[in-house]
Design a protein that fits this description.
Blueprint (H helix, E strand, L loop, with lengths): L25 H5 L1 H18 L2 H14 L4 H14 L2 H14 L4 H13 L3 H12 L7 H14 L3 H14 L4 H13 L3 H14 L4 H14 L2 H14 L4 H11 L3
Helix pairs in contact: 2-3, 2-4, 3-4, 4-5, 5-6, 6-7, 6-8, 7-8, 8-9, 8-10, 9-10, 10-11, 11-12, 12-13, 12-14
Amino acid sequence: MSMRVLPSLILVALALGGCAVQDEDPIHEAEPKSAATYNVQLGMAYLSKGDLAMAREKIERALKQDPSNVDGHRAAALLYDRLGDNDRADKEYQTVLRLKPNDPEALNNYGVYLCRHGRESDGEKQFLKAARDPIYKTPEAAYTNAGLCLRGAKRYEDAGKYFELALRVKPQFRDALFQMADMNFEQKHLPEAQLYVQRFIENVGATAEILWLGVRVERALGNPHIADSYAKRLKTEYPTTEQTRALLASERKPG
C-alpha cells in the first residue's frame, strides 16, 4: 500500500492560493524579498500545472532573491521530489526545518516524503515530533500519518497503535476510523472491521468509500442482508462514484 495523502490532514506542503501565472511585476523586482515571494507563487502555480521547467526557473530565482524564504524551500522540496532529485529534495526539507525548527507542518511534510521513499522509521520520527508538540492543534493528523506510513511498510500492529492514538485524541476522526476498518478487512479480522465500519457511519456518516467497504465486510462475514442494505445506499446516494462502479462489476461476476 502506498502512502496516501489524506485531504483532512496537514500534508499539503504549501497552500499559497490560486495565483495566476503571469510575468514578473517590476514592482516586485525592486524588492528582493517581495520578488522572492512573488516568484514562489508563480513557481507553485507552474508546478500545479505540471510545467516543471518554468516552476524550476521561478523557484530557483526566488531562492536567489531571498535564501531565507521558507515557502521557497518548501516549494523547492516539492519541485525536486517531482523531478526525481531525491538528494536535493531531502536537503530542501531539512533546510525548512533548520529555518523553522520543530514546525509541525514541516515535520509532517518531511515525514510523508521519507515514507514515500522507503524511510519509514525516519518518517515515523518526524510525525511523532509533530504529534507531541503541545501547541500543535491536530496531533491526530500526525498520528494517522505515522499509521499510514507503517501500514505501507506492512507493520500492521504498529500502524494500528498509531491509528488508535489518533482516535484517543479525536474519537470521531474519520481518516483513522477508515484506516482501522480497512486495515482489519485487509488482514481478514472481519468482526473488528465490521465494528469500525459501524463506528465510522455512526460518527461521520455514510461515504461511498465506507459503504463499499461495508458491503465487502458483510459479504465476507456471510451477512447478505446487511451487505445489500449498504449496496442499496451506495447506489442511491453515490451513483456515479468509482465505488459504485466496483459494486456493479462485482454483482455481474458469476457466483
